[in-house]
């Protein structure tokens, strides 16, 4: 079964140049995804490419009970995110 993935509305509000479809494309083509285990609730940092070929970093929460992913943060990838993922 395929996971349900949704994008929080504030992503586009904060980054008008990044549409929901761009985030979903980047999530679907992610090249790296790593859990952030230091947090109380499980979150994941991922990097993938959107429909325009831009590398985006995304932060998502996963709910194992419903098998749903909520991407609540996305922007063009930063050096800090690449370092965290070991891609620098």
Describe this structure in words.
With 88 residues, the protein is an alpha+beta fold. The chain is built from three helices and five strands; from the N terminus they run βααββββα. The chain has helices at 10-14, 20-28, 79-85, and strands at 4-7, 32-36, 43-49, 55-63, 68-76. A five-stranded mixed sheet has the order 1-5-4-3-2. Strand 3 (43-49) and strand 4 form a beta hairpin. The chain is globular, with a radius of gyration of 12 Å. The chain starts with a strand and ends with a helix.
In short:
The protein has 88 residues and is an alpha+beta fold. It is built from 3 helices and 5 strands.
List the helices and strands and how they pair.
Elements: E1 4-7, H1 10-14, H2 20-28, E2 32-36, E3 43-49, E4 55-63, E5 68-76, H3 79-85
Parallel strand pairs: 1-5
Antiparallel strand pairs: 2-3, 3-4, 4-5
Question: What are the salient characteristics of this protein?
Answer:
single chain, 88 residues, alpha+beta, globular
Rg (CA only): 12 Å
How are strands sequenced across the largest beta sheet?
1-5-4-3-2
Number of helices: 3
- Uncertain runs are none
Helix content percent band: 10-25%
What is the β-strand count? 5
**End-to-end C-alpha gap:** 33 Å
Which structural class is indicated by helix and strand composition?
A: alpha+beta
> What fraction of the residues are assigned to beta strands by DSSP?
35-45%
Q: Specify the biggest β-sheet.
A: 5 strands, mixed
Overall mean pLDDT: 92
> Which of globular, elongated, flat, extended, rod-shaped describes the shape?
globular
How do the SSEs run, as a string of H and E?
EHHEEEEH
């Amino acid at each position: 079964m395929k996971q349900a993935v949704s994008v929080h509305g504030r992503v586009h509000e904060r980054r008008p140049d990044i549409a929901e479809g761009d985030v979903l494309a980047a999530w679907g083509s992610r090249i790296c995804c790593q859990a952030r285990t230091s947090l109380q609730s499980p979150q994941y940092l991922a990097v993938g490419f959107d429909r325009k070929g831009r590398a985006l970093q995304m932060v998502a929460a996963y709910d194992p009970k419903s098998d749903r992913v909520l991407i609540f943060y996305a922007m063009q990838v930063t050096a800090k995110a690449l370092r965290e993922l070991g891609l620098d």
